[in-house]
UniProtKB/TrEMBL annotation:
Its EC number is 3.5.3.11. Keywords: Hydrolase, Metal-binding. The gene is speB. This is Agmatinase. The keyword Hydrolase applies. NCBIfam families: agmatinase. The keyword Metal-binding applies. It is an enzyme of class 3 (hydrolase). It comes from the Bacteria.
Length: 293
């Protein structure tokens, strides 16, 4: 599937009708084939789109309106159910098409393993890439119960691909002992429990660099986002995650792509997780996508 193919399903609020003049491409990755606890994040992208219909188009935080950003919602990549390897290959190919057109990829997950092929594609274009990872979980395992393709492994794979010194994790409060040992000994940057304050300290050192940002919704405390597959108590608030998004927006970072993953709406009948996620996506679009013209 090409990112510019016609899509007749639900779209994020104020999506442009065609891709040609869009600066950003919004797309979904409905995959939850490797989750270790509760499946259901494959339904996340469409629920985020539906929740966006209740948003205001204007952000008082950034004093910007969605009419100022040109983006095209290309719908979901039609991933083969249960086939993790083939799904990852399709995602990487899809992102390569977007990058070849000079557009900003903004992905909706799906489980966190979907970030791995995106970062591989972006690293091919930006060999000095840095990654900002905002999450409750370290995701630094080499495998999970014998499976190297697991939602608990993407950041370890990224460290091995681009160098651990180029990976910055925030909000981490869960992982096994070996993961935290690896973080400490490898030279990667890990801030436990909090996001905004440690992010402030790091941003000046990343000024001017191409940066990919991946956000797992479970960085939020379950009180703010119960609709996720592996909820973890002791997290940050929606307000702090918004602050982090705005810190990045107001910094000198060159954000070249991003994703928001692990929204599993079936565990949240009040839909507060999808509602929060849609607002985060709005702020990411308004703050991180720079006009090409």
């Amino acid at each position: 599937m090409r990112f510019d193919e016609a899509y007749s399903g639900k779209v994020f609020i104020m999506s442009r009708p065609t891709y040609e003049d869009a600066d950003a491409i919004l797309y979904g990755m409905p995959m939850d084939w490797t989750v270790s606890f509760r499946p259901g994040s494959r339904f996340g992208p469409n629920r985020i789109r539906e929740a966006s219909l209740g948003l205001e188009e204007y952000s008082p935080y950034l004093d910007r309106h969605l009419e100022e950003v040109t983006y095209f919602d290309a719908g979901d990549i039609p991933l083969p159910f249960g086939n993790a390897q083939r799904s990852l290959e399709m995602i990487q190919s899809y992102i390569e098409q977007i990058l070849a057109k000079g557009k900003f990829p903004l992905g909706l997950g799906g489980e966190h393993l979907v970030s791995w092929p995106i970062i591989q594609a972006i690293y091919q274009k930006y060999p000095d890439l840095a990654v900002i990872h905002i999450d409750a979980h370290a995701d630094l395992r080499e495998e999970y119960e014998g499976e190297a393709l697991s939602h608990s492994t993407p950041i370890r794979k990224v460290c091995e691909k681009i160098g651990p010194e180029n990976v910055y994790s925030f909000g981490i409060r869960s992982g096994d002992r070996d993961e935290f040992r690896y973080a400490k000994e490898s030279g990667m940057h890990m801030a436990k429990y909090e996001v905004a304050e440690p992010l402030k300290k790091v941003l000046p050192s990343l000024a001017g660099r191409p940066v990919y940002v991946t956000i797992d919704i479970d960085v939020l405390d379950p009180a703010f986002a119960p609709g996720t597959g592996t909820a973890e108590a002791g997290g940050i608030s929606s307000k702090e995650l918004l602050e982090a998004i705005h810190l990045i927006a107001r910094s000198d970072l060159r954000v070249v792509g991003a994703d928001l993953v692990e929204v599993a709406p079936n565990y949240d009948p009040a839909e507060q997780t999808a509602i929060a996620a849609s607002k985060f996506v709005r702020e990411m679009l308004l703050g991180w996508v720079k006009p090409s013209k």
